[in-house]
Amino acid sequence: MIIYTYPVRTAFTERDVEMIEPHFSIKPLKFTDSPVKLPFYFILQAFQLLFYLPKTTHYLCFFAGYHSYLPVIFGKLFKKKVFIQCGGTDAMNMPAINYGNYRKNILRQFTEYSFRNCTKILPVAQALVKQDYRYSALIPEAQGLKNLVPGLKTPIQVIHNGFSGEFWKDLGLERKAQTYITVATGISKSNRAMIKGIDLIEEMAARFPDAQFTLVGDENYSTHLTNIKVLGKLSQKEIRNLFNQHRFYLQLSMSEGFPNALAEAMLCGCIPIGSAVGAIPEIIGDTGFILEKKDSAALVRILQDANQADLITLRILAPLRIKTHYDYEDRKNALLQVFQ
Question: What distance in Å separates the CA atoms of residue 281 and residue 40, rounded to the nearest whole number?
Fold first, then answer.
């Protein structure tokens, strides 16, 4: 049995369970992302790990942090393999925007211990292994596992996210000009909004009053601009239908590992406009536009250029790139091979 631990349940964790479950017995164990609840969850997790120990063959952790600490210890004590999926915040140190595991001393120690003592690290993007961050002067350049965990010797295998082109697809609908969409949760919190680049979207909405911007994921986010539509959490089918009503997808984050919604939007024929962070440039390739630095004037030019581009060709190329490089079956096969 594979014990799968994570601090929050997401579409990512659900998809990986879906990939693994037909081939291996897997038991998801949710931890917590609330500091107040940590003592209780450490005790609960210890009892859970002991209870399932006789049947356990592997431990799989979604990100490194408090929730991966005990599985790593159990793995060492009882000679079980432990794999950690590195996804973003566990490979970033961005104190200026209150983001990343390494800005808090205790969390940093738990994260480092987990990475140093697990069997193998499975980042979702090469950028999480090592990167020179240049998007914003507020952020230290040295990012990624090899910069933040000095002397790290644990084996690393990049396994990109994978997506189904059967569900996420272009429905062939007519799309209005200057329609932009982004998906981001928790943006009613100011630091989260900045991390996800919502401040730039606000600036662009003010600069282009005839354009329509849609923010999906947090109904509590408030804006005074009438051309920004705010929606709460939606089902995947509802999001797919929204993607098919918009011409562009905006991923203007200050930090990302491998943003799922970007790839899903591209599969639906949205032309991507993204920041030069994490795997975003790699995902977009030559099918969209990259904002190299956090610069409002540069973004204005990109939006102007994007609306004058060959939109028909880009709409075809965007889903093709995801199908070619980030296929669902490719991730599934790579993930299953880890447990052989």
Answer: 41
